[in-house]
Amino acid sequence: MIERGYRQFVVDLGSCEHMDSTFMGTLAGISQNLRDLGHGSLVVLNVSPRNVALLENLGLNLLFSVQAMGAELQIPAEKGAKLLPLPTETGLEKEIVVSAHEALVAANPENASRFRDVLDYLKRDGRARSGH
Questions:
Q1: Order of strands, edge to edge, in the sheet holding 41-47?
Q2: How far apart are CA 86 and CA 82, in angstroms?
Q3: For the ranges 11-20, 57-66, 78-87, which has the lowest average pLDDT?
Q4: pTM listed for this prediction
Q5: In a 3-state reduction of DSSP, which class is residue 13?
Q6: Closest of 20, 9, 25 to residue 76, by C-alpha
Q7: Measured between alpha carbons, how far is 92 from 129 in angstroms, rounded to an integer?
Q8: Would the CA dihedral through 65, 66, 68, 73 be positive or negative?
Q9: In terms of Cα–Cα distance, which of 56, 53, 58, 48 is closest to 16?
Q10: Dihedral (Cα; 116, 118, 120, 121), 10-degree rounding
Q11: How do residues 79-118 score in pLDDT, each as one tens digit?
């Protein structure tokens, strides 16, 4: 989406009960890409208290706007706005997971110790499969 020129992103987590590190790293990566471009924004809204705590624990609330869930859910887009389909590519899953976790480490150096084992495993497993 960034490559297509989009710079304003709103992610509605109103139906999201739990996020894994890959998803949080993807959010961090989007934010970092926008920062590198020099403009754009990422807003994550309708975030449950549990997910707010997860994002704050990793320091991601410093990268993008995290809006906690209120009594009423915020509507992320104008009425009638169409959501764009997300591109789906197979075969890139491991690269996406590695990239997401690297973004978490880049977002907050304290995250390096939290995700070192995951990154080591993924990189080691990739070399073993490719014969390197």
A1: 8-12, 41-47, 65-68
A2: 12
A3: 78-87
A4: 0.76
A5: coil
A6: 9
A7: 14
A8: positive
A9: 48
A10: 160
A11: 556 666 666 666 668 888 899 999 999 999 999 999 999 8
